[in-house]
Amino acid sequence: MPILEMNGLGVSYPGFALQDIDLRLEAGSILGLIGPSGAGKTTLMRLIMGQVPPGRGSLAVMGLTHPGDLKEIRRRIGYVSEEPPFQPRKRVTEIASFAAPCYPRWDAGRFNDLLDEFGIEPRLRVEHLSRGRKSLLTLALALSHGADLLLLDEPAAGLDALHRRKVLRLMNEFVADGGRSAVITTHQTDGLAPLADRLAILHRGRLVLDGETEDLLASWKWLRYREGAVSPDLEADLACLENGAFGCRGLTGRYPEISGRLEAARTEGDLKVEGATIDDILISLTGGH
After folding, report:
1. What stretches of 189-254 show up as alpha helix (H) in DSSP?
2. What residues contact 280, with CB distance under 8 A and at least 6 apart?
3. Residue 247: how many other CB atoms lie within 10 Å
4. Residues pairing with 244 in the sheet
5. pTM to 2 decimals?
6. Cα angle at 277 between 276 and 280, to 5 degrees?
7. Model pLDDT for residues 62-112, shown as the tens digit of each residue
8. Which letter does DSSP use for residue 91 in this model?
9. Can you say how many angstroms the Cα of residue 122 is from the centroid of all Cα atoms in its chain?
10. In the chain, what are the domains?
């Protein structure tokens, strides 16, 4: 049974619509959900959490469905929102005391260990925490109540490099037993490729790419070549095409399919193949906006 399954999922607001989302996430996997601002990433997270009802299509979370199973769904999800909804005057200990009774699998020892690792003083009031520390506090709560699915909306926002690495390590540990999964939305794709088993790109409310990370990075390649070394029909299909004084450069998402037709140019030294990054793929599919 998949952790997440969406079929034709959508919802509409004035000026925006999330449309026809078909997405499946297996247990033990991490999904990197990326896209420009306003693409619909946070809306999709809120749909999963049941904060907004679907306008159309179906959504199952660990085999449970909205609205009848909503209470159980929320118990089994750890949600780290981009703007944590804490009351500024509450102390960290008070927030934990409020959360604990809501979750049958609450682990106070785990929570205190995470506070120590993140350098968060338990007696501090929320108003005295930086934006990054608030995100880490939310993550500590999410990791301490026995969640089966983590939803992390920009979890690295406001964090330094050291704490970003800690977050990535904790995500790997979370799914290591094969029974739990995570969805991460982020604008910072550095470090996402080795973390996310699967990538999904949203653009203007539509899913424009979805696949295993390893397969996508094997398919998307930069071609650097001498003018005329690539046939016109292949060149016409390249994205981000640049023609310069020292040769041409373009991005393909079909490298395994066309590699045989490029072999002669490679052998003669007229073409080089270079790996693409997740950012390269994102910009190619969304035009950078």
Report:
1. 213-219, 232-236
2. 220, 222, 240, 251
3. 15
4. 247
5. 0.92
6. 85
7. 999 988 899 999 999 999 987 777 899 999 999 999 999 999 999 999 999
8. B
9. 29
10. 4-210 (3.40.50.300), 220-286 (no CATH)
